[in-house]
Amino acid sequence: MRSPILELQSISKEFSGVKALSDVSLTVYPGSVHALVGENGAGKSTLMKILTGAYNKTNGQIFFEGKEIEQMDPKLSKKLGIHCIYQELNVMKNMTVAENVCIGAQPVTKLGLIDWKQMNHAAKEIFSFLQLDINPKMLVRELSIAQKQMVEIARAISQQARILIMDEPTSSLSERETEVLLSLVEELKKKGVSILYISHRMDEIFRICDTVTVLRDGTHIKTLPLKEVYNVDSLVELMVNRKVTNYFHKVEVDLGKPILRVEKLSKRGVLKDISFEIRQGEILGVAGLVGAGRSEIAKALFGLLKTDSGEIFIDAQKVEIQKPSDAIRLGLGFVTENRKETGLALKQSVRANITMSNLKKYVKNMLVNQTEEKQIAEEYRKKLNIKTATLEQPISSLSGGNQQKAILSRWIIQEPRILILDEPCRGVDVGAKAEIFAQISQLAQQGVAIIMISSEIPEIVGMSDRVIVMREGSIAGLLDKHAITPDNILKLAFGGGVSA
Q: Distance (Å, rounded) from C-alpha 490 to C-alpha 469?
């Protein structure tokens, strides 16, 4: 029998008296890929932060190669070769790609200065190994989210991790980049690296993992070899303690009149002649490869991207949207792709993040009526099942899926006429997905026009009334309901034609 490289025994963690983890155990062997699954808020990220020293455990024991670690801290964790790629990106935007990859281990000259030539060369070699074409001299802020994710992966590989924790590593990657990553995981496994793999993408877990541990509400439910798990449904049932048969809850709606029309929207090198319309109650899916221009359409409509030409009409009236406040005034809402950087005030409370765009509704005599504000926040906490100990805890302490539901509730309170959702379920578990899709469908029933951008083809197929497929900044095709199939979406995204 192999000896485990890592053992966590009866780990518990409390925050201000609230138990986030209770008596959780985990055993990891060298050269294995161990999946950690559960709904958002199940305790996965908390457990990983204890392992990396970001949090101190309240109770329990940690053993590394058979020796007990009394107190894990970030420095010791790194020394042991434990590295984590977090779901929320952790890159230095104003530094170069090479600096990000080599941070903390920059090569130096004999004079003690940074050896830029050697550092750029080292970064380039790692990207070559990853089959990626990224310029090491570029500033990270110029990269796409998918490229930033790969920079984090390159950093972990450069530091020769013995245990690599991957928290939703493919959530913002294209299909090609996902294939590269999964192949890389299999290569690292052959070299003896142990990988803890956190993902809501069941197909990835069944493809690359040996073992799966299920957490629910901060407790350990079961650890099984993957070969003993019958199918995706049986694993999901362990996660959510109920059958989940339909994630989408799509209700067919009688569409109203056209509410938004876009004509020949263009931005040099980004968007070219984008034209479409959307009706009241319609869900218009926007599909395409990462970098095809999907998010740029959303940003242009919301005043975050200045276009070179084109016109926007709302209720057949031409409008000018120069900044987000113009868009909000005209009845647009926008749930962004990157909740950490552009969606949340991370140091503020859950309550503040839910109500911040709507404070005018609760102002009386120039003061915010906090009772009303708290009531509406509590109402939407219950309505969207946002798991939080109290509304006053920092939103940064919530899981990604619960943060996403808080952002969505903010815009529902705003009562937009047109709601843009950019990757609304990025990093969200199947149970929370079902809740979010139910809310989206309900909004459509109320006559809200919804533009839904997603990299997940099943989401596009399951929720859309029509689909725009983007390719290289242009609309490659528009699919009506009967033609919305994975095959047609992929063919258009890659430059092919639609099946008859």
A: 9
pLDDT by residue (tens digit) across 104-127?
788 888 888 888 999 999 899 888
Same domain, 214 and 268: no
Pair type for strands 309-314 and 258-267: antiparallel
> pTM for the whole thing?
0.62
List pLDDT tens digits, range 234-250: 887 787 775 555 567 78
CA distances (Å), origin 448, targets 280, 440, 443, 484: 6, 9, 6, 21
- Structural domain including 336 reads 257-494
pLDDT for 68 equals 93
* Model confidence pLDDT, tens digit, residues 380-424: 888 888 888 889 988 888 877 788 888 888 888 888 999 999 988
- Side-chain-side CA neighbours of residue 453 (13 Å): 24
Contact 473, 307 (CB under 8 A): no
Quick one: CA dihedral 113, 116, 121, 126, positive or negative?
Answer: positive
- Element holding 384 (H helix, E strand): none
How many angstroms separate the CA atoms of 441 and 448, rounded?
A: 10
Residue 414 burial by CB count (10 A; 0-12/13-18/19+): exposed, middle or buried?
A: middle
Same domain, 10 and 107: yes
Q: Could you identify the residue written with the tokens 């929370």?
A: 432
64 and 29 co-located in one domain? yes
CATH, residue 174: 3.40.50.300
> Which of 243, 269, 297 delimits the end of a domain?
243
State the pLDDT at residue 194. 94
Same domain, 202 and 101: yes
Amino acid at 255: L
Q: Yes or no: say if 368 and 413 are a contact pair by the CB < 8 Å rule.
A: no
Give the C-alpha separation, 99 to 298, whole Å.
31
- DSSP structure string for 431-481: HHHHHHHHHHHHHHHTT-EEEEE-S-HHHHHHH-SEEEEEETTEEEEEE-G
Give the list of residues 6+ apart from residue 12 with CB closer than 8 angstroms, or none.
Answer: 19, 21, 22, 23, 24, 57, 58, 59, 60
Do 261 and 215 share a domain, yes or no? Answer: no
Residue from 318, 319, 314, 251 nearest 282 by CA:
251
Sequential DSSP letters for 217-269: TTEEEEEEEGGG---HHHHHHHHHSS----S---------SEEEEEEEEEETT
Q: Would you call 387 exposed, middle or buried from its count of C-beta atoms within 10 A (0-12, 13-18, 19+)? A: middle
Q: Which one, of 363, 383, 380, lies nearest residue 372 by Cα?
A: 363
Comparing C-alpha atoms, which of 88, 76, 27, 21 is closest to residue 52? 76
Q: Are residues 209 and 291 in the same domain?
A: no
Domain match, 387 and 310 both: yes
- How many domains does the chain fold into? 2
Residue 249 lies in a domain: no
Amino acid letter, residue 78: K
